[in-house]
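Input record (one chain):
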Amino acid sequence: MDAHLEADIYSRKNKKHLVLGKTPSDTSITLQSNDYLAITGHQHIRQKHLKAITDHKHEVVMSAVFQHQAESGDTFEEQLAALTGFEKCVLSQSGWAANVGLIQTLIPQGTPIYIDFFAHMSLWDGAKRAEGNIQTFLHNNMRHLEKQIKREGPGLIMVDSVYSTIGTVAPLHDLVEIANRYGCALLVDESHSLGTHGKNGAGLVAELGLTDQVDFLTASLAKAFAYRAGAILCSKDVAKSFPFTAYPAIFSSALLNHELEILKATLDVIKDADDKRSQLFIQSEKLRSGLVNLGYKIKSQSQIIALESGNDEDTEVIRDYLESRDVFGSVFCSPATPKNKNVIRFSLNSDVSDEQISTLLTVCREMREELSLK
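The corresponding structure, as predicted from the sequence alone:
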């Protein structure tokens, strides 16, 4: 513990962890939130939130294993399943719990699991806990994936639809083709595309017309939904088994009824947010192209845009420069990234203005010149 504190905290100029710089003000350009559609504080959601808390005065806090599954088609789970095109939706306490629990439910020990190098850590943790035969393939490299499947045999392929650190997009058409050819199942984590992509926010898998060819879809509802929960979209059989086999479902308390009402209200807003989605994509493209024109190596294809900042020392310098100009992104370092491959991530939302993008590009141009960034 002492070594950790010395290396990661006390050695910093501000005596804080690298991810913690200054605190932004109300006038700062703050691109740290995952609320991509800027729905926090939406009046409809707030009203439903207050009503739900008032209506559900005596809620039973218990594990999902003891809950009877609702028969009504008006539940949040049924609505989300219908939106995404899956038979069933199962909720969990978080996106992490969704991935870990689903993989544990699906995978017999020793089953080949093919996972993208940049896949979310929850997928890695699930694969390890399931004691699968983990095979990593190079990021978005279908030739490498195919080579591994030929060697190890059919198994489960796991990817993010939109990768959370650098904003790249998975080649889902190619992944579906490979999964079908070699008899693999495909799990897609849509945490950063559910709500932001597709008609009514149905997600990237639905937008590409691949729902029938993707076996499992998971998502954190702490991104575009701006809440705290996770979702698993799957078949009826998996949904029936999950509460009784997944440790996160068995050994943690389930979501409460008033929380489900909040999620329903949020889904109403998200379905009706096509204008916000369009604006998000427009503003994201402006920033991406502007940074590329300045000479930055931008890999993003989405609303997540990352500046490569290298090692911890260089990252600290870049972070402090940006914050001195009232620009705040999120520092991603080990274990969220490979060591010395840090990034500063800008998470755009639909309310980001042209003026803010112009200011940000000016700051990044001057930073590149003053710090002699390559």
